[in-house]
Amino acid sequence: MTSTRSAYRSHWGLNPDVTFLNHGSFGASPRVVLEAQRRLQDELESDPIRWLAPERDLEKKLDPVRERLSDFLGCRFEDLAFVRNATDGVNAVLRSFPFEADDEILVTSHGYNACTNAARFVAGRAGARVTVADIPFPCSGPDAAVEAIEAAFTSKTRLLLVDYVTSPTALILPLARIIEAAHARGIRVLVDAAHAAGMVKVELDALGADYTTGNLHKWLCGPKVAGYLHVRPEHQAEVRPTVISHAANTPRPARSRFLAEFDWTGTFDPTPLLAVPVALDFLENVIHGGGIEAVYAANRALALEGRRILTSRLGLVAPAPEEMLGSIVTLPLPDGPPPEIGRTDTLGQRLFETHRIEVPIVHWPAPGKRWFRISAMLYNDATEYERLGDALESELTLATR
């Protein structure tokens, strides 16, 4: 089948020979964003000392980005730090938290493996435990998620680590209700919002989580290695970056230790962060007259259309209601062999090598239990999901012979 290609595809430098349905994993930056980053890199290399020294220009360059992002994310400038990615932000909070023996960190069965690993690491050092709230999937609706988490709270639960949008199952969780339930029991909440910014409207102060961390390179389309960590004021004295550097004992004038430490963790490339405003400008203007809300709506509509195409073509039952979905969707596959250690799933390999389709095959909650996850970004087109349906139909037929 010949794809008509989205009218927006030319804004990205994606390989034209690949049907790219996996924006959710690492994002994809538009050409204009990468061009801006390269200009910034050239400027940096023209005078690295001036650029990278906090007391020279670095803080002056980061602060306007923080101002723009705090407005976009609905929070105070003073409460927003920069991190490499959401996993970095989760680690910073977990490794700063004053856990004691027998405390419990509650995660969910839909949590991101890297962040659950961080929770296990920290718990092991403190003599604490990681417990799991088993959110059902297929999921009947938001109530099921709230009830599963509430049922897992105990008197020893100190911190809840919960996703804004789950990675393996693509569910938008009812965070306001979950946070309210946790706070009513004196439990702090750390939100892994890796997928949220650029997919849904985020209002951090209104949401009320104690800590929220997210990526700026996924649905916001910034360059790779750009993330944020939002911490409520009452916790900022406690939270330290994963790299301790000069600001630990070198105060910065008129700057909190929280911002000073996260702004300078040693030599790094700040250009991904400095190019984020260009990504915001792009998304605000790419759909003429629509703003970024039109991008949210277009991507979600395309993801739901992709779901309709694939469930119809393959005879699948959608495992979640539309109200819990944004611009990524997870759908079931027949059980299959788990991938070899260090390798991708064999079906995923065949989809890429034979059909030139990039789509993740997820083994969850255990090896052999398979799902596939589609993403929808402006550069995608409905015919690409039809092409995926053709490929899956072919591959699954071959597998049963």
Automatic annotation (TrEMBL):
Domain spans labelled Aminotransferase class V:
32-336
Q: What's the Enzyme Commission number for this chain? A: 5.1.1.17
Q: Which gene encodes it?
A: cefD
EC class (word):
isomerase
Please tell me whether the keyword Coiled coil is annotated for this protein: no
**Molecular functions (GO terms):** isopenicillin-N epimerase activity
Protein name (record): Isopenicillin N epimerase
Q: Which domain of life is it from?
A: Bacteria
Provide the species name.
Saltatorellus ferox
List the SUPFAM superfamilies.
PLP-dependent transferases (SSF53383)
Q: Which UniProt keywords apply?
A: Isomerase, Pyridoxal phosphate
Q: Which Gene3D superfamilies match?
A: Aspartate Aminotransferase, domain 1 (3.90.1150.10), Type I PLP-dependent aspartate aminotransferase-like (Major domain) (3.40.640.10)
